[in-house]
Amino acid sequence: MATETVGEKEPRAVAVNVLKGGFGKSTTAINLARELAERNERVLLIDLDDNGHTTFNLGHQDQYEAENHLQQVLIDGEDPIDHVVSITDNLDLLPSHESLEDVETNLKSAMASSQRLHRNVIDPLLGDTYSYIVVDTPANRGKLNDNALFATKNLIIPLRPESGWESGITQTNKRLIKEAQQYFDLQLLALVPTDLSERLDQDTRDRNLLYAINSRDGLAPCVPNFARLTSSDWEDIDNGTYSKELPGIRHRASIDKAHRAHKTLRDYDPECDQLHCYDELAQIVEYGEVRR
Protein backbone atom coordinates (compact mmCIF):
# COMPACT_ATOMS: atom_id res chain seq x y z
CA MET A 1 0.00 0.00 0.00
CA ALA A 2 1.32 3.46 -0.87
CA THR A 3 2.37 5.75 1.98
CA GLU A 4 0.00 8.70 2.35
CA THR A 5 1.42 12.20 2.41
CA VAL A 6 -0.96 15.07 3.09
CA GLY A 7 -0.54 17.89 0.54
CA GLU A 8 0.75 15.60 -2.18
CA LYS A 9 -1.16 13.66 -4.80
CA GLU A 10 -1.15 10.14 -3.39
CA PRO A 11 -3.41 7.08 -3.32
CA ARG A 12 -5.99 7.67 -0.57
CA ALA A 13 -9.06 6.14 0.98
CA VAL A 14 -11.85 8.36 2.31
CA ALA A 15 -15.05 7.80 4.26
CA VAL A 16 -18.15 9.88 3.52
CA ASN A 17 -19.75 10.06 6.94
CA VAL A 18 -22.23 11.93 9.12
CA LEU A 19 -24.26 10.53 12.02
CA LYS A 20 -27.59 11.53 10.52
CA GLY A 21 -29.59 10.04 7.68
CA GLY A 22 -30.77 11.98 4.64
CA PHE A 23 -27.80 14.32 4.48
CA GLY A 24 -26.55 13.30 1.04
CA LYS A 25 -23.91 10.72 1.96
CA SER A 26 -24.68 8.37 -0.91
CA THR A 27 -25.04 11.18 -3.46
CA THR A 28 -21.72 12.64 -2.36
CA ALA A 29 -19.93 9.29 -2.32
CA ILE A 30 -21.21 8.25 -5.75
CA ASN A 31 -20.36 11.48 -7.53
CA LEU A 32 -17.04 11.96 -5.74
CA ALA A 33 -15.99 8.46 -6.83
CA ARG A 34 -17.17 9.09 -10.39
CA GLU A 35 -15.19 12.34 -10.64
CA LEU A 36 -12.06 10.62 -9.33
CA ALA A 37 -12.56 8.02 -12.06
CA GLU A 38 -13.09 10.79 -14.62
CA ARG A 39 -9.66 12.14 -13.68
CA ASN A 40 -8.21 8.89 -15.09
CA GLU A 41 -7.90 7.20 -11.71
CA ARG A 42 -8.96 3.65 -10.85
CA VAL A 43 -11.53 3.89 -8.05
CA LEU A 44 -13.37 1.48 -5.75
CA LEU A 45 -16.64 2.60 -4.13
CA ILE A 46 -17.64 0.56 -1.05
CA ASP A 47 -21.22 0.64 0.23
CA LEU A 48 -21.20 -0.07 3.98
CA ASP A 49 -24.66 1.42 4.59
CA ASP A 50 -27.32 -1.19 5.32
CA ASN A 51 -29.99 0.83 3.46
CA GLY A 52 -28.04 0.23 0.27
CA HIS A 53 -28.78 3.59 -1.34
CA THR A 54 -25.47 3.67 -3.18
CA THR A 55 -25.96 0.11 -4.44
CA PHE A 56 -29.58 0.79 -5.47
CA ASN A 57 -28.80 4.15 -7.07
CA LEU A 58 -26.16 2.55 -9.25
CA GLY A 59 -28.59 -0.10 -10.47
CA HIS A 60 -27.47 -3.15 -8.50
CA GLN A 61 -30.52 -4.14 -6.48
CA ASP A 62 -29.83 -7.73 -7.55
CA GLN A 63 -26.49 -7.62 -5.74
CA TYR A 64 -28.15 -6.12 -2.64
CA GLU A 65 -30.47 -9.13 -2.49
CA ALA A 66 -27.94 -11.79 -3.56
CA GLU A 67 -25.04 -13.22 -1.56
CA ASN A 68 -23.74 -11.18 1.36
CA HIS A 69 -20.53 -9.86 -0.21
CA LEU A 70 -19.36 -7.95 2.84
CA GLN A 71 -19.89 -10.97 5.09
CA GLN A 72 -17.69 -13.01 2.76
CA VAL A 73 -15.02 -10.31 2.52
CA LEU A 74 -14.90 -8.91 6.07
CA ILE A 75 -15.73 -12.02 8.09
CA ASP A 76 -14.73 -14.95 5.87
CA GLY A 77 -11.68 -13.26 4.33
CA GLU A 78 -12.55 -13.85 0.68
CA ASP A 79 -10.86 -11.82 -2.07
CA PRO A 80 -12.81 -8.54 -2.45
CA ILE A 81 -12.05 -8.45 -6.19
CA ASP A 82 -14.30 -11.50 -6.59
CA HIS A 83 -17.22 -9.46 -5.27
CA VAL A 84 -16.94 -6.08 -7.03
CA VAL A 85 -19.13 -5.00 -9.95
CA SER A 86 -18.14 -2.54 -12.66
CA ILE A 87 -19.87 0.87 -12.88
CA THR A 88 -17.65 2.54 -15.51
CA ASP A 89 -14.26 1.71 -17.01
CA ASN A 90 -12.40 3.14 -14.00
CA LEU A 91 -15.04 2.72 -11.28
CA ASP A 92 -16.01 -0.45 -9.40
CA LEU A 93 -18.50 -1.02 -6.60
CA LEU A 94 -18.38 -3.39 -3.62
CA PRO A 95 -22.14 -3.59 -2.96
CA SER A 96 -24.09 -3.45 0.26
CA HIS A 97 -26.50 -6.22 1.27
CA GLU A 98 -29.91 -6.47 2.89
CA SER A 99 -28.40 -8.55 5.73
CA LEU A 100 -25.60 -6.14 6.55
CA GLU A 101 -26.81 -6.10 10.16
CA ASP A 102 -25.52 -9.69 10.36
CA VAL A 103 -22.05 -8.43 9.45
CA GLU A 104 -22.31 -5.77 12.15
CA THR A 105 -23.24 -8.44 14.68
CA ASN A 106 -20.51 -10.85 13.57
CA LEU A 107 -17.87 -8.13 13.75
CA LYS A 108 -18.57 -7.64 17.46
CA SER A 109 -17.14 -11.08 18.22
CA ALA A 110 -14.44 -11.13 15.53
CA MET A 111 -10.74 -10.80 16.26
CA ALA A 112 -9.41 -7.32 15.34
CA SER A 113 -13.03 -6.37 14.71
CA SER A 114 -12.36 -2.73 13.76
CA GLN A 115 -9.49 -3.58 11.42
CA ARG A 116 -11.17 -5.97 9.00
CA LEU A 117 -11.89 -3.43 6.25
CA HIS A 118 -8.32 -2.18 6.40
CA ARG A 119 -6.76 -5.64 6.49
CA ASN A 120 -9.03 -7.37 3.95
CA VAL A 121 -9.74 -4.56 1.48
CA ILE A 122 -7.91 -1.25 1.83
CA ASP A 123 -4.41 -2.53 2.54
CA PRO A 124 -4.24 -5.09 -0.30
CA LEU A 125 -6.00 -2.93 -2.91
CA LEU A 126 -5.09 0.74 -2.33
CA GLY A 127 -2.16 1.88 -4.45
CA ASP A 128 -1.92 -1.36 -6.40
CA THR A 129 -5.36 -2.15 -7.82
CA TYR A 130 -7.08 1.17 -7.04
CA SER A 131 -5.68 4.69 -6.74
CA TYR A 132 -8.61 5.80 -4.56
CA ILE A 133 -11.21 4.07 -2.41
CA VAL A 134 -14.42 5.86 -1.32
CA VAL A 135 -16.53 4.37 1.49
CA ASP A 136 -20.21 5.23 1.99
CA THR A 137 -20.80 4.65 5.70
CA PRO A 138 -23.81 3.89 7.92
CA ALA A 139 -25.57 6.85 9.56
CA ASN A 140 -25.21 5.21 12.97
CA ARG A 141 -22.31 4.36 15.23
CA GLY A 142 -21.14 0.73 15.11
CA LYS A 143 -18.42 -1.67 14.03
CA LEU A 144 -18.89 -0.98 10.32
CA ASN A 145 -18.47 2.73 10.95
CA ASP A 146 -15.41 2.08 13.11
CA ASN A 147 -13.97 -0.05 10.30
CA ALA A 148 -14.54 2.73 7.77
CA LEU A 149 -12.77 5.36 9.87
CA PHE A 150 -9.82 3.16 10.81
CA ALA A 151 -9.35 1.92 7.24
CA THR A 152 -9.56 5.28 5.50
CA LYS A 153 -8.31 7.76 8.14
CA ASN A 154 -9.81 10.51 5.97
CA LEU A 155 -13.30 11.95 6.28
CA ILE A 156 -15.72 14.00 4.19
CA ILE A 157 -18.91 15.23 5.89
CA PRO A 158 -21.91 16.23 3.73
CA LEU A 159 -24.37 18.71 5.29
CA ARG A 160 -27.86 19.59 4.12
CA PRO A 161 -29.45 22.86 5.27
CA GLU A 162 -32.29 21.31 7.20
CA SER A 163 -33.28 20.85 10.81
CA GLY A 164 -30.63 18.93 12.70
CA TRP A 165 -27.58 19.73 10.58
CA GLU A 166 -25.75 21.28 13.52
CA SER A 167 -26.48 18.38 15.86
CA GLY A 168 -25.41 16.04 13.07
CA ILE A 169 -21.97 17.57 12.76
CA THR A 170 -21.68 17.98 16.54
CA GLN A 171 -22.44 14.32 17.16
CA THR A 172 -20.15 13.24 14.32
CA ASN A 173 -17.35 15.31 15.79
CA LYS A 174 -17.95 14.16 19.37
CA ARG A 175 -18.83 10.50 18.88
CA LEU A 176 -16.69 9.68 15.85
CA ILE A 177 -13.85 12.11 15.13
CA LYS A 178 -12.73 13.00 18.66
CA GLU A 179 -13.06 9.45 19.92
CA ALA A 180 -11.26 7.97 16.90
CA GLN A 181 -8.43 10.49 17.21
CA GLN A 182 -7.61 9.04 20.63
CA TYR A 183 -6.45 5.88 18.85
CA PHE A 184 -5.31 6.88 15.34
CA ASP A 185 -4.87 9.90 13.09
CA LEU A 186 -8.13 10.89 11.41
CA GLN A 187 -8.14 13.79 8.98
CA LEU A 188 -11.25 15.85 8.21
CA LEU A 189 -10.80 16.66 4.52
CA ALA A 190 -13.97 18.58 3.68
CA LEU A 191 -17.37 19.81 4.85
CA VAL A 192 -19.78 19.72 1.93
CA PRO A 193 -22.94 21.90 1.98
CA THR A 194 -25.27 20.15 -0.45
CA ASP A 195 -28.78 20.48 -1.89
CA LEU A 196 -28.88 24.25 -1.30
CA SER A 197 -31.70 26.25 -2.88
CA GLU A 198 -32.62 29.21 -0.64
CA ARG A 199 -31.60 32.86 -0.71
CA LEU A 200 -28.58 34.03 1.24
CA ASP A 201 -29.65 37.62 1.85
CA GLN A 202 -32.38 36.51 4.25
CA ASP A 203 -32.45 34.44 7.43
CA THR A 204 -32.61 31.03 5.74
CA ARG A 205 -31.19 27.63 6.62
CA ASP A 206 -28.82 27.91 3.67
CA ARG A 207 -27.40 31.14 5.03
CA ASN A 208 -27.12 29.82 8.59
CA LEU A 209 -25.29 26.69 7.46
CA LEU A 210 -22.86 28.53 5.17
CA TYR A 211 -22.20 31.25 7.74
CA ALA A 212 -21.53 28.74 10.51
CA ILE A 213 -18.99 26.62 8.65
CA ASN A 214 -17.21 29.60 7.08
CA SER A 215 -16.88 31.55 10.31
CA ARG A 216 -15.68 28.87 12.75
CA ASP A 217 -11.91 28.54 12.97
CA GLY A 218 -12.03 24.77 13.34
CA LEU A 219 -14.27 24.30 10.30
CA ALA A 220 -13.39 27.02 7.79
CA PRO A 221 -10.15 25.38 6.52
CA CYS A 222 -12.20 22.33 5.50
CA VAL A 223 -14.76 24.28 3.43
CA PRO A 224 -14.17 23.68 -0.31
CA ASN A 225 -13.69 26.70 -2.54
CA PHE A 226 -17.11 26.12 -4.10
CA ALA A 227 -18.71 26.79 -0.69
CA ARG A 228 -16.32 29.40 0.71
CA LEU A 229 -17.60 32.85 1.67
CA THR A 230 -15.35 35.59 3.06
CA SER A 231 -16.43 38.54 5.21
CA SER A 232 -16.42 40.75 2.11
CA ASP A 233 -18.62 38.19 0.32
CA TRP A 234 -21.16 38.44 3.15
CA GLU A 235 -21.09 42.24 2.88
CA ASP A 236 -21.79 41.99 -0.84
CA ILE A 237 -24.61 39.52 -0.21
CA ASP A 238 -26.27 41.85 2.30
CA ASN A 239 -25.73 44.86 0.03
CA GLY A 240 -27.18 43.06 -2.98
CA THR A 241 -23.90 43.33 -4.92
CA TYR A 242 -22.75 39.70 -4.73
CA SER A 243 -22.05 38.55 -8.28
CA LYS A 244 -20.13 35.30 -7.83
CA GLU A 245 -21.55 31.85 -8.39
CA LEU A 246 -23.84 30.80 -5.54
CA PRO A 247 -21.89 28.69 -3.02
CA GLY A 248 -22.36 25.04 -2.13
CA ILE A 249 -23.73 22.20 -4.20
CA ARG A 250 -27.02 23.60 -5.44
CA HIS A 251 -30.24 21.64 -5.77
CA ARG A 252 -30.62 20.34 -9.32
CA ALA A 253 -33.35 18.03 -10.58
CA SER A 254 -30.78 16.11 -12.61
CA ILE A 255 -29.00 14.97 -9.42
CA ASP A 256 -32.17 13.25 -8.21
CA LYS A 257 -33.08 12.02 -11.69
CA ALA A 258 -29.64 10.45 -12.05
CA HIS A 259 -30.39 8.23 -9.03
CA ARG A 260 -33.72 7.16 -10.50
CA ALA A 261 -31.93 6.35 -13.76
CA HIS A 262 -29.32 4.34 -11.80
CA LYS A 263 -26.50 6.52 -13.06
CA THR A 264 -23.93 8.92 -11.71
CA LEU A 265 -24.57 12.61 -12.34
CA ARG A 266 -21.81 12.79 -14.97
CA ASP A 267 -23.23 9.83 -16.87
CA TYR A 268 -26.80 11.15 -16.66
CA ASP A 269 -26.19 14.86 -17.29
CA PRO A 270 -22.60 15.67 -18.30
CA GLU A 271 -23.59 19.33 -18.73
CA CYS A 272 -24.82 19.82 -15.15
CA ASP A 273 -23.33 23.00 -13.69
CA GLN A 274 -22.69 21.29 -10.31
CA LEU A 275 -20.17 18.76 -11.60
CA HIS A 276 -17.34 21.20 -10.89
CA CYS A 277 -18.14 20.85 -7.15
CA TYR A 278 -17.65 17.10 -7.21
CA ASP A 279 -14.53 17.61 -9.30
CA GLU A 280 -13.08 19.84 -6.57
CA LEU A 281 -13.94 17.18 -3.99
CA ALA A 282 -11.99 14.70 -6.11
CA GLN A 283 -9.02 17.07 -6.08
CA ILE A 284 -9.29 17.41 -2.30
CA VAL A 285 -9.11 13.63 -1.96
CA GLU A 286 -6.19 13.45 -4.37
CA TYR A 287 -4.12 15.95 -2.38
CA GLY A 288 -5.48 15.27 1.10
CA GLU A 289 -6.52 18.88 1.74
CA VAL A 290 -8.51 21.86 0.50
CA ARG A 291 -6.23 23.92 -1.74
CA ARG A 292 -6.85 27.68 -1.84
TrEMBL record:
Domain named AAA: residues: 13-182
Gene3D superfamilies: P-loop containing nucleotide triphosphate hydrolases
InterPro entries: AAA_dom, DNA_Partitioning_ATPase, P-loop_NTPase
Name of the featured protein: Chromosome partitioning protein
Annotated source species: Halohasta litchfieldiae
